[in-house]
Write the structure tokens for this entry.
Amino acid sequence: MTLTNARRFAPPVAMIMAAVMVASVLGGCASSGAPPRAADPTRSETAAAYNLQLGVAYLQQGNLALAKDKLERALAQNARDPNVHGALAMLNEKLGKLPDADKHYRTALKLSPRNPDLTNNYAVFLCRTGRVEDGVKRFMDAARNPLYQAPWRAYTNAGVCLRSANRLDEAAVSFGRSLRIRPNDAEALFQLADLELGRGRAPASRELLDRYLLTFPATPDLLWLGVRTARAQGDRLAEERFLRRLQRDFPDSEQTRESRGARP
């Protein structure tokens, strides 16, 4: 896998789950016997949460037209929901409307400045658009936020961002921080081992992979990296072992399809 292909950020699933939770909570509020004066705002917020949930689902499916329709409805129904703005930011990024995406991220964080998921997601956007310094700073803010339930994800993303800027020593430190928090994080391990291989340090990459695979489950990425690392070392037996395991355990994976051109 090339360096370009390895530059992956963890998906913003936390915001999507938040949208589902908001819908559930507001649904409960709508039937809680609230006084008549509060009924209309509650219905509006509940409708917004429902449209947000649908919009995010359509966004995941790649149906951008329906996602746009639902998210714009949610915005009209509750313009002060930071999750609505966060989802609109992701939609606008997919549509190539980067200034609009930036505006919605900033609005979301203005409404919820201590929200670590939104901070992480905005940092991903910043790094994708070349604003590395600001992106890494926001990843660090998210990682250090005691409310964030997945700080390792922010450290991994910061490492990917730094790696994209060829700041490899800093990237390695960030991946290491992620693994200290969550030793079984396959993505952080892959990123660090792939970085080491890319720097011509095949033995270090192999040591990371072997130690990880002794304890934690394999992934297609890690096994294919094992193939390439063993090949770089000239270890034909290990290369074949990694290759057989990849093709046996993950026969339908993209990595297995790529491996069909490798030596048997």
User: Anything to note?
Assistant: Residues 36-61 form the longest helix (26 residues). The two ends are 18 Å apart (CA to CA). Residues 1-6, 13-39 have pLDDT under 50 and may be disordered. DSSP finds 15 helices and no strands in the chain.
